[in-house]
Automatic annotation (TrEMBL), chain A:
This is Uncharacterized protein. InterPro entries: ABC-2_transporter-like. It holds the Pfam family ABC2_membrane_6. The keyword Lipid metabolism does not apply.
Automatic annotation (TrEMBL), chain B:
One of its GO terms (molecular function) is ATP hydrolysis activity. SMART domains: AAA. Residues 4-257 form the ABC transporter domain. It comes from Candidatus Magasanikbacteria bacterium GW2011_GWA2_46_17. This is ABC transporter. SUPFAM superfamilies: P-loop containing nucleoside triphosphate hydrolases. The lineage of its organism: Bacteria, Candidatus Magasanikiibacteriota. InterPro entries: AAA+_ATPase (IPR003593), ABC_transporter-like_ATP-bd (IPR003439), ABC_transporter_ATP-binding (IPR050763), P-loop_NTPase (IPR027417).
Length: 262, 327
């Protein structure tokens, strides 16, 4: 464990060194991120001009859900978002070779090699916005609910990681799946809405095969006291099993790896 | 006891045939013809500790596939392999800490960062103690003469400097077995020579077992006492290099340019005339007479330029097949 901690520290240090070389790029991307955030909030404002609640959730709660989704997405981007989408190319171009010869988990290395530094800056900014929303809407949370919300938020990151990994692992069979990460992005973006707005079948999928409910809906439901104990337990067990399944699938797929001609 | 032992090792790749053209592309969405390529066919060999073995063959012969199986990158279709007593494709950390793979056409260094950052990363991956890391780094950078480039971004280094850094990255944990897959490919003659000299010294001092694949006969001649030749997935020769050279390379090729036309009859007196064009000729001569004949050509004929070429490894393999398929 200590070894992996040291390796991750080096990955982070190298990512900071890399980012420092492209500072201009970082600031431009920060600027566009602010515009993107503004568009998210504008959507909420437009919806709530015409209604006072969305599937039983008021404006402040929808803001919370949107921000939870943004924070989960940002954390995912920071930790594995710049890595896993490269997996199909890594597999088809034979770049996985080097990872497989090292005395460490190849999955750990390909998932975490690049720490997206600009996502850290954005994450801090988004935490401040979340604090402002909590203050603006005068939320008062139960501490136990806060604890479960954070726990479920982290479980949601594991679910998102596992979902992304499983779909990208298909590259061992399908080779060119360039669009898979666009599809993941489109699907997971639905996670910023309450699942009650979705059709029944989609709602079932959101808690199972296409687990979009885990990034924002489930943590915010816990935070606002909407979750039952068995619901929280289901989410935690599901996250664990989904992660385990994704790792098993990866290990199974590795047996199919044929590298590439040199 | 051999440090590397391979028995009846085979590897078959699956691939698909897709004829060219738009409609064929559409058709291939629904139906593709599955084909199989046998890259390695039931090969056997063993290597003792400290040996430096040349693994030769033309493109697609199965060299890299064998190295990839031995380093645990891919699974074989059948057969067994043991490296340092481990089955490579089980990818046990204890095994991975004792070998290294350097591929001339792939790099493990971080492209946008100085090589030193990759060395520090490898130190943690291989859990090399600080003192040993410093000592090995000092030793390797001294031998390869790259102390002054460790803080330069990898992308700004020349190909030769990059390969030297790749070697350092691969050797920091002092592996007992080293797989070198075309380490001199694309390098200029000076860099090729530097890398070659380094490998020779390293093998001599560290007694590391090395398998080297290369298309350059100079690499093999300079480094390997023993060679294994593979073609179409079969081992066609496994033995001393000298025996192979004596048996199959008995000639060199002289490529001569003249200042005026020289007739074929005159040229044929010097050796076997392989090609002739206006003011240019390619002559095959006995290996031990090559220098003398070159001198004679220079003194007796109006020579503008002359090149003495070694016979390539591909030609050696062709010759082996012209004689017998297995020795």
């Amino acid at each position: 464990m200590n070894k992996y901690f040291k390796i991750y520290k080096i990955f982070m240090a190298n990512s900071f060194s890399y980012e420092a070389q492209y500072r201009g790029d970082t600031w431009i991307k920060m600027f566009f991120n602010i515009i993107w955030l503004a568009s998210m909030f504008l959507t909420v404002e437009v919806v709530f001009r015409h209604t006072s609640a969305l599937a039983g959730w008021d404006k402040g709660e929808i803001y919370l859900m949107t921000l939870f989704w943004i924070l989960a997405d940002e954390l995912a981007m920071m930790i594995f978002g710049a890595n896993l989408p490269q997996l199909p190319d890594t597999i088809t171009d034979g770049k996985l070779d080097i990872y497989l010869t090292k005395p460490m988990s190849a999955l750990f290395a390909i998932s975490t090699k690049i720490f997206l530094v600009r996502s850290l800056y954005r994450f801090i900014m988004e935490i401040i916005i979340l604090a402002a929303v909590i203050w603006k809407f005068d939320f008062a949370f139960n501490l136990l609910y806060v604890f479960f919300s954070i726990l479920l938020g982290l479980a949601g990151i594991f679910v998102l990681y596992s979902f992304t990994l499983m779909l990208n692992t298909l590259a061992f069979w399908l080779h060119r799946i360039d669009n898979v990460n666009v599809a993941i992005s489109v699907l997971t973006s639905l996670g910023k809405y309450p699942v009650e707005v979705l059709p029944r079948t989609m709602r079932i999928l959101a808690f199972t095969a296409i687990p979009i409910a885990f990034t924002a809906y489930i943590p915010v439901a816990a935070l606002t006291g909407r979750s039952s104990w068995h619901g929280i337990l289901y989410a935690l067990v599901f996250a664990g099993l989904f992660f385990w399944g994704a790792v098993k699938f990866w290990n199974f797929a590795l047996k199919r790896y044929s590298s590439a001609s040199s | 006891m051999p440090i590397i032992q391979i028995e009846n090792l085979s590897k078959t790749y699956e691939y698909y045939r897709k004829p060219a053209g738009f409609w064929n592309s559409v058709k291939s969405l629904f139906h593709r013809e599955k084909l199989f390529a046998e890259a390695v066919k039931s090969i056997n060999f063993s290597i003792e500790e400290g040996e430096l073995v040349g693994f030769l063959g033309p493109n697609g012969a199965g060299k890299t596939t064998t190295l990839k199986i031995l380093s645990g990158i891919i699974y074989p279709t059948s057969g067994s392999a043991k490296v340092l007593g481990y089955t490579p494709w089980k990818r046990q950390a204890r095994f991975q800490k004792q070998f290294a793979l350097v591929m001339g056409q792939k790099n493990q260094l971080w492209w946008d960062l100085p090589a030193m950052e990759s060395f520090i990363l490898n130190k943690e991956i291989y859990e090399v103690p600080e003192a040993m890391f410093k000592e090995t780094l000092e030793e390797l950078t001294e031998l390869l003469d790259i102390k002054n480039i460790l803080d330069v971004q990898v992308r700004k280094l020349s190909l030769g400097q990059r390969m030297k850094c790749e070697l350092v990255a691969a050797l920091l944990h002092s592996p007992r077995v080293l797989f070198l897959d075309e380490p001199t490919i694309g390098l200029d003659v000076v860099s090729q020579n530097n890398v070659r000299e380094f490998i020779k010294k390293y093998n001599r001092f560290k007694k590391t077992t090395i398998i080297l694949t290369s298309h350059y006969m100079e690499d093999v001649e300079a480094l390997c006492e023993r060679v294994i030749i593979i073609n179409h997935g079969l081992i066609v020769y496994d033995g001393k290099l000298q025996k192979l050279l004596d048996q199959y390379i008995d000639h060199k090729i002289l490529e001569v340019t003249f200042t005026e036309n020289v007739d074929a009859k005159t040229l044929a007196r010097f050796g076997k005339l392989k090609e002739r064009a206006a003011k240019r000729a390619v002559i095959e001569v006995r290996k031990d007479k090559a220098k003398d004949i070159a001198v004679q050509l220079l003194t007796k004929l109006p020579v503008d330029d002359i090149l003495i070429n070694e016979v390539g490894v591909d030609e050696v393999i062709r010759k082996i097949f012209a004689g017998t398929a297995r020795l």
